[in-house]
Amino acid sequence: MPTPRTTIWELDEHSRGKHIVLERYLKAWLPILGTTQERIVFIDGFAGPGEYTGGEKGSPIIALEALVEHKAPITAKVHFLFIEADPRRAQHLEQLVAPLAQRLLGRATIEVKTGTFDSELSGLLNEIESRKMLLAPSFVMADPFGVSHTPMSVMSQILKNPSSEVYVSFMAEFINRFKDTELYPVS
Ligand SMILES: C[S@@+](CC[C@H](N)C(=O)[O-])C[C@H]1O[C@@H](n2cnc3c(N)ncnc32)[C@H](O)[C@@H]1O
């Protein structure tokens, strides 16, 4: 699928698959960490606009609804950070999350940031490190279109924190197209 330029776009099959994995994973992650930790964080680093042209939910809404609908006694405060580079998509997402923010009042905080994953997360992690603190247990989703130029150093900075994990969309097909070129030799 060519990279969409519109604010919202049609859901494709592989994104539908990603969403099923995300929803099932969060259904387990929320009660495991949410009943043993005081504060947990969900970061969607390539958040998108929150919905598709057919009305299907995007990853930020799937994550918020996983908490709204969970039956477990989740006592942790959950912070949701949604990072989106395109200002129109970030604005669209802000409107969609507003009603859910009301429903989660006192249980969760929600922040939509217009910016890039790399600079927003590096800024956050460097500040935490400079204060000699640790990131609260976090689930970080990195789901770019194609290749994102996100340095692996950001991922390793996240993974240095206890109980933090990263869910990366790995574009194997895209990488296969270049594997035999001189720039990307196989061995
Ligand atoms: C594959 S879509 C995300 C879909 C969304 N995660 C979902 O599942 O509903 C990728 C999004 O990342 C945004 N984006 C592209 N480069 C980015 C960057 N460096 N940092 C943050 N967002 C970026 C695009 O505007 C697009 O909305």
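^ S-adenosylmethionine complex. The CA atoms of residues 27 and 69 lie 9 Å apart. Residues 13-34 form the longest helix (22 residues).
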